[in-house]
Amino acid sequence: MAKKSxxxxxxxxxxxxxxxxxxxxxxxxxxxxSYDHDPSHPSYGEEAAEAMGVSPDRVFKTLVADVDGALVVxxxxxxxxxDLKALAAAVGGKxxxxxxxxxAERTTGYVRGGISPLxxxxxxxxxxxxxAQAHTTICVSAGRRGLEVELAPDDLxxxxxxxxxxxxxx
Length: 170
Prior knowledge:
By secondary structure, the chain is of the alpha+beta class.
């Protein structure tokens, strides 16, 4: 992976987002990608893939679900969707539903469309779709709309304490 760009180093010094601050503190190699967010785009993740010119199977969205009364993060490719039953099974639960967006925002400290699996206000159990292992690097939200971070899936797994499981479909 390429060395950190000047922009990335500057953003880290200036405080960055909680996600980029966490990555910098961990000493992980990562690259920040920014683009102009279009509020009228129907999909945050697909918009990111298009704007960065990256295949949608390498750009992962962060979704917050309620599994048996507890919040859990599912990280899946933007090209597909989250299999709620598989997510519940991956964390030993029985039933999962998508979390209330306002609760997800309050708990993670991020806004919808900018929720990162990294640097969350309250660290939630995280499950990363096992398709991430097929790539040298993947992109996830860096903590705000129009900002993505590219890193190795193994680094994301270590930093979030994620379980790898087949939770994506499509």
